[in-house]
Amino acid sequence: MILVTGGAGFIGGNFVLDWLKVPGNEGIINLDKLTYAGNLATLASLKDDLRHIFVHGDIGDQVLVTRLLKEYQPRAIINFAAESHVDRSIHGPAEFVTTNIVGTFNLLECAREYWSGLSASSKNAFRFHHVSTDEVYGSLSATDPAFTETNSYEPNSPYSASKAASDHLVRAWFHTYGFPVVTTNCSNNYGPYHFPEKLIPLVILNALNGKPLPIYGDGQQIRDWLYVGDHCSAIREVLAKGKLGETYNIGGWNEKANIEVVKTICIILDELKPRIDGKSYIDQITYVKDRPGHDRRYAIDAGKIERELGWRPAETFDTGIRKTVQWYLDNPVWIEGVVSGSYRDWLSKQYN
Ligand code: NAD
Ligand code: DAU
Cβ neighbours of residue 24 under 8 Å, at least 6 residues apart? Predict the structure, then answer.
Protein backbone atom coordinates (compact mmCIF):
# COMPACT_ATOMS: atom_id res chain seq x y z
CA MET A 1 0.00 0.00 0.00
CA ILE A 2 0.87 3.64 -0.26
CA LEU A 3 -0.72 6.31 1.95
CA VAL A 4 -1.81 9.43 0.11
CA THR A 5 -3.02 12.45 2.08
CA GLY A 6 -5.28 15.06 0.48
CA GLY A 7 -6.24 12.62 -2.26
CA ALA A 8 -9.72 14.12 -2.69
CA GLY A 9 -8.23 17.47 -3.72
CA PHE A 10 -7.17 18.65 -7.14
CA ILE A 11 -3.64 17.25 -7.48
CA GLY A 12 -4.03 14.39 -4.99
CA GLY A 13 -7.22 13.29 -6.76
CA ASN A 14 -5.50 13.29 -10.15
CA PHE A 15 -2.59 11.39 -8.63
CA VAL A 16 -4.86 8.68 -7.16
CA LEU A 17 -6.76 8.28 -10.45
CA ASP A 18 -3.55 8.06 -12.51
CA TRP A 19 -1.89 5.65 -10.09
CA LEU A 20 -4.82 3.24 -10.05
CA LYS A 21 -5.05 3.26 -13.86
CA VAL A 22 -1.94 1.07 -13.84
CA PRO A 23 -3.13 -2.49 -13.14
CA GLY A 24 -0.01 -3.68 -11.29
CA ASN A 25 0.22 -0.72 -8.90
CA GLU A 26 -0.42 -1.24 -5.18
CA GLY A 27 -3.51 0.01 -3.43
CA ILE A 28 -3.93 3.45 -1.90
CA ILE A 29 -5.17 4.52 1.51
CA ASN A 30 -6.47 8.00 0.89
CA LEU A 31 -6.64 10.14 4.04
CA ASP A 32 -8.52 13.39 3.46
CA LYS A 33 -10.32 15.78 5.78
CA LEU A 34 -12.77 16.78 3.04
CA THR A 35 -12.48 20.50 3.56
CA TYR A 36 -14.30 22.66 1.02
CA ALA A 37 -11.50 21.66 -1.43
CA GLY A 38 -11.97 17.92 -1.00
CA ASN A 39 -14.43 16.39 -3.43
CA LEU A 40 -15.27 12.70 -3.56
CA ALA A 41 -17.02 13.18 -6.90
CA THR A 42 -13.52 13.37 -8.35
CA LEU A 43 -12.99 9.77 -7.23
CA ALA A 44 -16.42 8.49 -8.29
CA SER A 45 -14.91 6.17 -10.92
CA LEU A 46 -13.13 4.26 -8.10
CA LYS A 47 -16.37 3.34 -6.31
CA ASP A 48 -15.89 -0.38 -7.00
CA ASP A 49 -12.09 -0.43 -6.99
CA LEU A 50 -10.97 -2.38 -3.94
CA ARG A 51 -7.47 -0.91 -4.26
CA HIS A 52 -8.79 2.48 -3.10
CA ILE A 53 -9.54 2.85 0.61
CA PHE A 54 -10.87 6.26 1.51
CA VAL A 55 -10.52 7.46 5.10
CA HIS A 56 -12.20 10.70 6.18
CA GLY A 57 -9.81 12.30 8.65
CA ASP A 58 -7.17 14.85 9.50
CA ILE A 59 -3.40 14.53 9.06
CA GLY A 60 -3.19 16.25 12.45
CA ASP A 61 -5.02 13.39 14.19
CA GLN A 62 -2.26 11.41 15.86
CA VAL A 63 -4.42 8.49 16.96
CA LEU A 64 -5.95 8.04 13.51
CA VAL A 65 -2.68 8.36 11.57
CA THR A 66 -0.90 5.95 13.93
CA ARG A 67 -3.71 3.42 13.55
CA LEU A 68 -3.72 3.66 9.75
CA LEU A 69 0.03 3.14 9.54
CA LYS A 70 -0.14 0.12 11.85
CA GLU A 71 -3.09 -1.40 10.05
CA TYR A 72 -2.05 -0.89 6.42
CA GLN A 73 1.77 -0.88 6.70
CA PRO A 74 2.33 1.46 3.73
CA ARG A 75 5.72 1.49 2.04
CA ALA A 76 5.40 5.22 1.29
CA ILE A 77 3.48 8.34 2.28
CA ILE A 78 2.79 11.10 -0.22
CA ASN A 79 1.65 14.26 1.54
CA PHE A 80 -0.61 16.39 -0.65
CA ALA A 81 -2.91 17.51 2.17
CA ALA A 82 -2.82 21.26 2.66
CA GLU A 83 -4.72 24.48 2.61
CA SER A 84 -3.64 25.62 -0.83
CA HIS A 85 -5.29 28.92 -1.80
CA VAL A 86 -3.24 32.10 -1.38
CA ASP A 87 -6.28 34.42 -1.24
CA ARG A 88 -7.87 32.36 1.54
CA SER A 89 -4.60 32.46 3.47
CA ILE A 90 -4.71 36.26 3.38
CA HIS A 91 -8.24 36.32 4.83
CA GLY A 92 -7.70 33.53 7.39
CA PRO A 93 -4.16 32.25 7.96
CA ALA A 94 -4.91 30.11 11.05
CA GLU A 95 -6.04 27.03 9.14
CA PHE A 96 -2.85 27.20 7.06
CA VAL A 97 -0.71 27.05 10.17
CA THR A 98 -2.82 24.23 11.62
CA THR A 99 -2.83 21.94 8.59
CA ASN A 100 0.29 22.87 6.65
CA ILE A 101 2.65 23.20 9.60
CA VAL A 102 1.20 21.39 12.62
CA GLY A 103 -0.49 18.73 10.45
CA THR A 104 2.75 17.98 8.59
CA PHE A 105 4.60 17.86 11.90
CA ASN A 106 2.12 15.29 13.21
CA LEU A 107 2.37 13.21 10.05
CA LEU A 108 6.18 13.25 10.26
CA GLU A 109 6.16 12.19 13.89
CA CYS A 110 3.63 9.37 13.40
CA ALA A 111 5.50 8.18 10.31
CA ARG A 112 8.88 8.30 12.06
CA GLU A 113 7.53 6.22 14.92
CA TYR A 114 6.10 3.68 12.45
CA TRP A 115 9.28 3.63 10.34
CA SER A 116 11.50 3.06 13.42
CA GLY A 117 9.66 -0.20 14.08
CA LEU A 118 10.02 -1.60 10.56
CA SER A 119 12.39 -4.40 9.56
CA ALA A 120 15.71 -3.28 8.07
CA SER A 121 14.61 -3.94 4.49
CA SER A 122 11.21 -2.20 4.88
CA LYS A 123 12.97 0.67 6.61
CA ASN A 124 15.34 1.06 3.66
CA ALA A 125 12.51 0.98 1.15
CA PHE A 126 10.28 3.48 3.00
CA ARG A 127 9.72 7.00 1.59
CA PHE A 128 8.00 10.13 2.89
CA HIS A 129 7.31 12.33 -0.13
CA HIS A 130 6.34 15.91 0.71
CA VAL A 131 4.53 17.83 -2.02
CA SER A 132 5.40 21.52 -1.93
CA THR A 133 5.34 24.65 -4.02
CA ASP A 134 7.60 27.06 -5.88
CA GLU A 135 6.04 29.90 -3.88
CA VAL A 136 8.45 29.17 -1.00
CA TYR A 137 11.21 30.83 -3.06
CA GLY A 138 9.40 34.20 -3.18
CA SER A 139 9.06 36.48 -6.16
CA LEU A 140 11.34 37.00 -9.19
CA SER A 141 11.94 40.14 -11.21
CA ALA A 142 11.51 39.96 -14.99
CA THR A 143 15.23 39.33 -15.50
CA ASP A 144 16.04 37.00 -12.60
CA PRO A 145 16.98 33.42 -13.50
CA ALA A 146 14.35 30.77 -12.72
CA PHE A 147 14.28 29.14 -9.27
CA THR A 148 16.71 26.30 -8.71
CA GLU A 149 16.76 23.99 -5.70
CA THR A 150 19.48 26.14 -4.11
CA ASN A 151 17.48 29.38 -4.10
CA SER A 152 16.93 30.71 -0.61
CA TYR A 153 13.45 30.53 0.90
CA GLU A 154 11.69 33.93 0.82
CA PRO A 155 7.95 33.20 1.21
CA ASN A 156 5.65 36.22 0.99
CA SER A 157 2.12 35.03 1.77
CA PRO A 158 0.73 33.20 4.80
CA TYR A 159 0.22 30.22 2.45
CA SER A 160 3.79 30.13 1.16
CA ALA A 161 5.19 30.80 4.65
CA SER A 162 3.26 27.81 5.99
CA LYS A 163 4.50 25.60 3.14
CA ALA A 164 8.06 26.83 3.69
CA ALA A 165 7.77 25.93 7.38
CA SER A 166 6.58 22.43 6.49
CA ASP A 167 9.47 21.99 4.04
CA HIS A 168 11.90 22.95 6.82
CA LEU A 169 10.39 20.36 9.15
CA VAL A 170 10.71 17.67 6.48
CA ARG A 171 14.33 18.63 5.85
CA ALA A 172 15.13 18.58 9.58
CA TRP A 173 13.58 15.13 10.04
CA PHE A 174 16.02 13.81 7.44
CA HIS A 175 19.09 15.50 8.87
CA THR A 176 18.32 14.87 12.52
CA TYR A 177 16.65 11.47 12.50
CA GLY A 178 17.75 10.02 9.16
CA PHE A 179 14.04 9.81 8.29
CA PRO A 180 13.80 9.01 4.53
CA VAL A 181 12.21 12.05 2.88
CA VAL A 182 12.06 13.65 -0.55
CA THR A 183 10.46 17.04 -1.26
CA THR A 184 9.18 18.37 -4.56
CA ASN A 185 8.53 22.06 -5.22
CA CYS A 186 6.17 22.53 -8.11
CA SER A 187 4.87 25.47 -10.10
CA ASN A 188 1.20 26.31 -10.86
CA ASN A 189 -0.87 23.29 -11.89
CA TYR A 190 -3.95 23.26 -14.07
CA GLY A 191 -6.18 20.51 -15.48
CA PRO A 192 -9.28 18.42 -14.67
CA TYR A 193 -11.00 18.51 -11.25
CA HIS A 194 -9.54 21.91 -10.33
CA PHE A 195 -11.66 23.79 -7.78
CA PRO A 196 -12.98 26.98 -9.40
CA GLU A 197 -11.49 29.43 -6.92
CA LYS A 198 -8.16 29.24 -8.77
CA LEU A 199 -7.53 31.35 -11.87
CA ILE A 200 -7.92 28.85 -14.73
CA PRO A 201 -11.10 26.99 -13.68
CA LEU A 202 -12.62 30.24 -12.40
CA VAL A 203 -12.12 31.92 -15.76
CA ILE A 204 -13.52 28.96 -17.73
CA LEU A 205 -16.67 28.75 -15.61
CA ASN A 206 -17.21 32.52 -15.32
CA ALA A 207 -16.83 32.86 -19.08
CA LEU A 208 -19.44 30.17 -19.76
CA ASN A 209 -21.81 31.74 -17.23
CA GLY A 210 -21.53 35.24 -18.69
CA LYS A 211 -19.75 36.58 -15.61
CA PRO A 212 -16.74 38.96 -15.42
CA LEU A 213 -13.25 37.44 -15.73
CA PRO A 214 -11.39 39.11 -12.85
CA ILE A 215 -7.76 40.06 -13.48
CA TYR A 216 -5.87 41.18 -10.38
CA GLY A 217 -3.86 44.40 -10.82
CA ASP A 218 -2.32 44.82 -14.27
CA GLY A 219 -2.48 41.11 -15.18
CA GLN A 220 1.24 41.04 -15.95
CA GLN A 221 2.14 38.67 -13.09
CA ILE A 222 3.87 35.59 -14.42
CA ARG A 223 3.32 31.98 -13.43
CA ASP A 224 4.95 28.82 -14.80
CA TRP A 225 2.05 26.52 -15.73
CA LEU A 226 2.21 22.73 -15.54
CA TYR A 227 -0.49 20.26 -16.60
CA VAL A 228 -1.51 18.27 -13.52
CA GLY A 229 -0.88 14.89 -15.18
CA ASP A 230 2.74 15.95 -15.65
CA HIS A 231 3.02 16.85 -11.97
CA CYS A 232 1.70 13.38 -11.11
CA SER A 233 4.21 11.67 -13.43
CA ALA A 234 7.05 13.70 -11.88
CA ILE A 235 5.99 12.63 -8.38
CA ARG A 236 5.96 8.99 -9.48
CA GLU A 237 9.51 9.39 -10.83
CA VAL A 238 10.78 11.06 -7.66
CA LEU A 239 9.09 8.46 -5.48
CA ALA A 240 10.73 5.67 -7.48
CA LYS A 241 14.18 7.16 -8.11
CA GLY A 242 14.62 10.33 -6.05
CA LYS A 243 17.61 10.60 -3.74
CA LEU A 244 16.80 10.72 -0.04
CA GLY A 245 16.98 14.14 1.57
CA GLU A 246 16.93 15.86 -1.83
CA THR A 247 14.50 18.41 -3.18
CA TYR A 248 13.40 18.50 -6.82
CA ASN A 249 11.82 21.45 -8.61
CA ILE A 250 9.00 20.53 -10.98
CA GLY A 251 7.81 22.96 -13.64
CA GLY A 252 6.39 23.20 -17.11
CA TRP A 253 8.88 25.53 -18.84
CA ASN A 254 5.72 27.53 -19.56
CA GLU A 255 5.98 31.06 -18.22
CA LYS A 256 2.89 33.08 -19.03
CA ALA A 257 1.47 36.41 -17.87
CA ASN A 258 -2.00 36.04 -16.31
CA ILE A 259 -3.63 38.19 -18.96
CA GLU A 260 -2.16 35.96 -21.67
CA VAL A 261 -3.52 32.84 -19.95
CA VAL A 262 -6.99 34.36 -19.67
CA LYS A 263 -7.04 35.52 -23.30
CA THR A 264 -5.91 32.06 -24.46
CA ILE A 265 -8.82 30.46 -22.60
CA CYS A 266 -11.22 32.99 -24.16
CA ILE A 267 -9.95 32.22 -27.66
CA ILE A 268 -10.30 28.46 -27.16
CA LEU A 269 -13.84 28.93 -25.81
CA ASP A 270 -14.68 31.22 -28.76
CA GLU A 271 -13.84 28.26 -30.98
CA LEU A 272 -15.31 25.38 -28.94
CA LYS A 273 -18.39 27.07 -27.43
CA PRO A 274 -19.00 30.46 -29.08
CA ARG A 275 -21.09 33.05 -27.25
CA ILE A 276 -24.63 33.28 -28.63
CA ASP A 277 -24.18 37.00 -29.33
CA GLY A 278 -21.18 36.20 -31.54
CA LYS A 279 -18.82 38.35 -29.43
CA SER A 280 -15.56 37.11 -27.90
CA TYR A 281 -15.32 36.01 -24.25
CA ILE A 282 -12.43 38.50 -24.10
CA ASP A 283 -15.10 41.20 -23.67
CA GLN A 284 -15.81 39.75 -20.19
CA ILE A 285 -12.28 40.54 -18.92
CA THR A 286 -12.42 42.96 -15.97
CA TYR A 287 -9.46 44.41 -14.10
CA VAL A 288 -9.98 44.31 -10.31
CA LYS A 289 -8.06 45.29 -7.16
CA ASP A 290 -4.72 43.51 -6.83
CA ARG A 291 -4.02 40.71 -4.33
CA PRO A 292 -2.12 42.14 -1.30
CA GLY A 293 1.58 41.24 -1.50
CA HIS A 294 1.02 39.70 -4.93
CA ASP A 295 4.18 37.90 -6.11
CA ARG A 296 5.20 39.23 -9.51
CA ARG A 297 6.83 36.24 -11.15
CA TYR A 298 7.50 32.56 -10.52
CA ALA A 299 9.61 30.44 -12.84
CA ILE A 300 11.00 26.97 -12.26
CA ASP A 301 14.28 25.64 -13.53
CA ALA A 302 13.32 21.96 -13.85
CA GLY A 303 16.80 20.97 -15.03
CA LYS A 304 17.76 18.87 -12.02
CA ILE A 305 14.84 16.45 -12.27
CA GLU A 306 15.50 16.09 -16.00
CA ARG A 307 19.26 15.49 -15.61
CA GLU A 308 19.03 13.17 -12.63
CA LEU A 309 15.72 11.36 -13.14
CA GLY A 310 15.00 11.85 -16.83
CA TRP A 311 11.64 13.58 -16.28
CA ARG A 312 10.23 16.23 -18.62
CA PRO A 313 6.65 17.41 -18.97
CA ALA A 314 4.70 15.77 -21.78
CA GLU A 315 2.26 18.65 -22.33
CA THR A 316 2.96 22.10 -23.70
CA PHE A 317 0.72 24.92 -22.46
CA ASP A 318 -1.15 24.87 -25.78
CA THR A 319 -1.99 21.16 -25.58
CA GLY A 320 -2.68 21.16 -21.83
CA ILE A 321 -4.95 24.19 -21.77
CA ARG A 322 -7.00 22.93 -24.71
CA LYS A 323 -7.49 19.55 -22.97
CA THR A 324 -8.47 21.38 -19.79
CA VAL A 325 -11.06 23.64 -21.42
CA GLN A 326 -12.49 20.61 -23.22
CA TRP A 327 -12.66 18.70 -19.91
CA TYR A 328 -14.72 21.47 -18.30
CA LEU A 329 -17.06 21.47 -21.31
CA ASP A 330 -17.42 17.67 -21.12
CA ASN A 331 -18.04 17.36 -17.36
CA PRO A 332 -21.12 19.40 -16.45
CA VAL A 333 -22.14 17.02 -13.66
CA TRP A 334 -18.88 17.45 -11.71
CA ILE A 335 -19.08 21.20 -12.26
CA GLU A 336 -22.72 21.45 -11.21
CA GLY A 337 -21.89 19.59 -7.98
CA VAL A 338 -19.12 22.03 -7.17
CA VAL A 339 -20.96 25.17 -8.15
CA SER A 340 -24.16 24.23 -6.29
CA GLY A 341 -22.20 22.90 -3.32
CA SER A 342 -24.02 19.56 -3.56
CA TYR A 343 -20.68 17.71 -3.61
CA ARG A 344 -20.63 18.39 0.12
CA ASP A 345 -23.91 16.52 0.69
CA TRP A 346 -21.90 13.33 0.76
CA LEU A 347 -20.58 14.31 4.18
CA SER A 348 -23.99 14.62 5.79
CA LYS A 349 -25.24 11.49 4.02
CA GLN A 350 -22.29 9.47 5.19
CA TYR A 351 -21.86 10.74 8.74
CA ASN A 352 -25.32 11.69 10.03
P1 NAD B 1 -6.46 21.35 -2.90
O2 NAD B 1 -6.78 22.51 -2.03
O3 NAD B 1 -7.20 21.15 -4.17
O4 NAD B 1 -6.62 19.98 -2.07
C5 NAD B 1 -6.16 19.82 -0.77
C6 NAD B 1 -6.77 18.55 -0.20
O7 NAD B 1 -6.25 18.37 1.13
C8 NAD B 1 -8.29 18.60 -0.08
O9 NAD B 1 -8.86 17.39 -0.55
C10 NAD B 1 -8.53 18.78 1.39
O11 NAD B 1 -9.77 18.22 1.84
C12 NAD B 1 -7.34 18.06 1.99
N13 NAD B 1 -7.00 18.52 3.34
C14 NAD B 1 -6.90 19.80 3.78
N15 NAD B 1 -6.57 19.82 5.08
C16 NAD B 1 -6.42 18.53 5.46
C17 NAD B 1 -6.07 17.91 6.68
N18 NAD B 1 -5.80 18.62 7.79
N19 NAD B 1 -6.01 16.56 6.73
C20 NAD B 1 -6.30 15.82 5.62
N21 NAD B 1 -6.65 16.35 4.45
C22 NAD B 1 -6.71 17.70 4.36
O23 NAD B 1 -4.91 21.44 -3.16
P24 NAD B 1 -4.06 21.03 -4.45
O25 NAD B 1 -4.07 22.17 -5.39
O26 NAD B 1 -4.48 19.70 -4.89
O27 NAD B 1 -2.60 20.96 -3.82
C28 NAD B 1 -2.11 19.74 -3.27
C29 NAD B 1 -0.72 19.97 -2.71
O30 NAD B 1 0.14 20.44 -3.74
C31 NAD B 1 -0.67 21.05 -1.62
O32 NAD B 1 0.26 20.63 -0.65
C33 NAD B 1 -0.17 22.29 -2.35
O34 NAD B 1 0.55 23.13 -1.47
C35 NAD B 1 0.76 21.67 -3.39
N36 NAD B 1 0.91 22.42 -4.64
C37 NAD B 1 -0.19 22.86 -5.33
C38 NAD B 1 0.00 23.51 -6.55
C39 NAD B 1 -1.16 23.99 -7.38
O40 NAD B 1 -0.94 24.68 -8.38
N41 NAD B 1 -2.39 23.67 -7.04
C42 NAD B 1 1.30 23.72 -7.06
C43 NAD B 1 2.39 23.26 -6.30
C44 NAD B 1 2.18 22.60 -5.10
O1 DAU C 1 2.89 28.37 -7.71
C2 DAU C 1 2.25 27.27 -7.16
C3 DAU C 1 0.99 27.71 -6.47
O4 DAU C 1 0.04 28.01 -7.50
C5 DAU C 1 0.42 26.67 -5.51
O6 DAU C 1 1.33 26.44 -4.48
C7 DAU C 1 -0.93 27.13 -4.94
O8 DAU C 1 -1.48 26.12 -4.13
C9 DAU C 1 -1.86 27.41 -6.09
O10 DAU C 1 -3.10 27.90 -5.61
C11 DAU C 1 -1.24 28.43 -7.06
O12 DAU C 1 -1.14 29.72 -6.43
P13 DAU C 1 -1.46 31.07 -7.22
O14 DAU C 1 -1.79 32.12 -6.25
O15 DAU C 1 -0.41 31.36 -8.23
O16 DAU C 1 -2.77 30.56 -8.04
P17 DAU C 1 -4.15 31.29 -8.37
O18 DAU C 1 -4.86 30.43 -9.37
O19 DAU C 1 -4.89 31.72 -7.15
O20 DAU C 1 -3.67 32.60 -9.13
C21 DAU C 1 -2.88 32.53 -10.31
C22 DAU C 1 -2.54 33.95 -10.72
O23 DAU C 1 -3.75 34.59 -11.18
C24 DAU C 1 -2.04 34.80 -9.58
O25 DAU C 1 -1.06 35.70 -10.09
C26 DAU C 1 -3.27 35.57 -9.11
C27 DAU C 1 -4.06 35.74 -10.38
N28 DAU C 1 -5.53 35.76 -10.24
C29 DAU C 1 -6.13 34.77 -9.52
C30 DAU C 1 -7.49 34.75 -9.37
C31 DAU C 1 -8.16 33.66 -8.54
C32 DAU C 1 -6.28 36.73 -10.88
O33 DAU C 1 -5.73 37.62 -11.58
N34 DAU C 1 -7.62 36.70 -10.74
C35 DAU C 1 -8.27 35.76 -9.99
O36 DAU C 1 -9.53 35.82 -9.88
Answer: none
Does the C-beta of 12 come closer than 6 Å to ligand 1? yes
Say how many Å lie between the CA of residue 131 and the centre of ligand 1: 9
Q: What is the C-alpha to C-alpha distance for residues 9 and 186, in angstroms, rounded to an integer?
A: 16
Prediction pTM value: 0.98
Q: Of the candidates 330, 320, 304, which has an alpha carbon nearest to the alpha carbon of residue 237?
A: 304
State whether the beta carbon of 33 lies less than 6 angstroms from ligand 2: no
Looking at the CA of 131, which ligand is closest?
1
Pairing of strands 76-79, 127-133: parallel
Angstrom distance (rounded) from CA 198 to CA 316: 20
Catalytic residue at 134? yes
Contact 137 CB / ligand 1 (< 6 Å): no
pLDDT, tens digit only, all 352 positions of the chain: 999 999 999 999 999 999 999 988 999 999 999 999 999 999 999 999 999 999 999 999 999 999 999 999 999 999 999 999 999 999 999 999 999 999 999 999 999 999 999 999 999 999 999 999 999 999 999 999 999 999 999 999 999 999 999 999 999 999 999 999 999 999 999 999 999 999 999 999 999 999 999 999 999 999 999 999 999 999 999 999 999 999 999 999 999 999 999 999 999 999 999 999 999 999 999 999 999 999 999 999 999 999 999 999 999 999 999 999 999 999 999 999 998 887 777 666 655 5
Q: Is the CB of 186 under 6 A from ligand 1?
A: yes
Tell me whether residue 224 is one of the annotated catalytic residues: no
Ligand 1 centroid–CA 85 distance in Å is 9
Is 159 a known active-site residue?
Answer: yes
Query: What does the alpha-carbon distance between residue 16 and residue 30 come to, in Å, rounded to a whole number?
Result: 8
Ligand 2 atom nearest residue 221's Cα:
25
